[in-house]
Amino acid sequence: MPQDARLERLLDFLRRSPTPWHATANMAERLEQAGYRRLEETDAWRLMPGDRVYVTRNDSSIIALQLPASPLTALRMIGAHTDSPGLRLKPNAAQTAAGWLQLGVEVYGGALLAPWFDRDLGLAGRVQVRYPDGRLAGLRLTVDRPVAIIPSLAIHLDREANNGRAMNAQTEMPPVLLQGGGHADFERLLHDWLAEEHGIEGLEVLDFELALHDMQPPARLGVEGELIASARLDNLLSCFIGLEALLESDGTQGALLVANDHEEVGSASACGAQGPFLGDVLRRVNAQLGEGDEEGLVRLIQASRMISCDNAHALHPNFRDRHDAAHGPALNAGPVIKVNASQRYATNSATAALFRELCREAEVPVQTFVTRADMGCGSTIGPITATELGVPTLDVGVPQWAMHSIRETAGSQDVAHLTRVLTAFFDRTELP
Fold it and tell me: Would you tell me which CATH number, out of the four given (3.40.50.12780, 1.10.1040.10, 3.30.565.10, 3.40.630.10), belongs to the domain 2-84+231-427?
């Protein structure tokens, strides 16, 4: 069945994307398989009507662009982010205690810490190296087997463990890596892992950006397979769905998919949504296929629409009181329009109406989320992109449980729901 094949692609993408650098590389691979041409930001671009191209920045953010054969007057844009909360290694990561080599970590984003204990952990990320001939390069590293663990303290030694005790990320979260190991052993391991993955001996490690990741593979579960459980559903699920929709679209309209890094830490970076990446691409596209001047760029942006896709909080059966009674999205009941009067989400009535119409046309149910008035609200790349560009924007997402946990849960049917709606958006001939 097509749905089962899509879910298998999703599970494979999640498994092979432990970091933003891996997710971006995997998205680029699928785009090239579909005929998209890679652009380099340092090259002069030569764009033609009908082109399908993509470009990356920092190897962790990506923009894919489908240009129409007809004049470019508007773009249907979908935005997501490649990063997820977790544990990143400190630069001088190696530390020893009680006869064990451990890794010093810092918390990336608003991670739920408790689920990280007693997990089989691998290591992945990007390593900057010097080749024997003196060349410098960045290489992805994937230690795709259990090499570390953060063991819990026995309850006999902490009788308050189940009473809401706070966790100290500095003293309680460093994972154990090697018994009897010292600082030099971690450097040796890095060299061994790089040689094993890339088949190159004699590399000198200059620096790295590495993260721990759960080795439990993504899975479809539930008696009827109604659930998906995995690390990094927030927000690789949106990256995958946006890419599926782009590749399934009919190719007649101007379409753009952007997946930014650093959303979980505020988006303020060269490749984040608050940075210039998307604006730089739009200016270059407008210069060649649009009206060419600044006024033409504004006209293009204002005629375009952006759907920011980031997962939404599903109603939890054990914590129903954490939702507004009229705004509790259910798993497998369709995508969620996210609304916040204080503009933590970019949705307004006009952009929400467009999405409701798209859902009607695609015969997909639609839901709405608003946080309780006495609780704070998260945010997305939506308001940031709208602020930076001025493009009319709305925020939507697939509902999920356990957001920012090491293992999150979503509904398997919602993958097809949102893919159908976003495909309809990419194919729509007119934008209101």
Answer: 3.40.630.10
Rounded CA separation 31/256 (Å) = 12
The partner residues of 336 in beta bridges, in order of sequence, read: 367, 397
pLDDT digits (tens, 9 = 90+) for 274-301: 999 999 999 999 999 988 899 999 999 9
pTM above 0.85, yes or no: yes
Report which of 418, 423, 35 is spatially closest to residue 255, judged by C-alpha positions: 423
pLDDT tens-digit series, residues 36-47: 999 999 999 999
How far apart (Å, rounded) are the C-alpha atoms in residues 36 and 65? 9
Q: Which two tokens stand for residue 300?
A: 């293009």
Nearest one of 19, 29, 18 to 64, comparing CA atoms = 29
Strand 219-221 vs strand 399-401: parallel, antiparallel, or unpaired? Answer: unpaired
Amino acid identity at 77: M
How many residues are present in the chain?
432
Q: Are 291 and 300 in contact (CB under 8 A)?
A: yes
Is 2.10.260.10 the CATH number for 86-214?
no
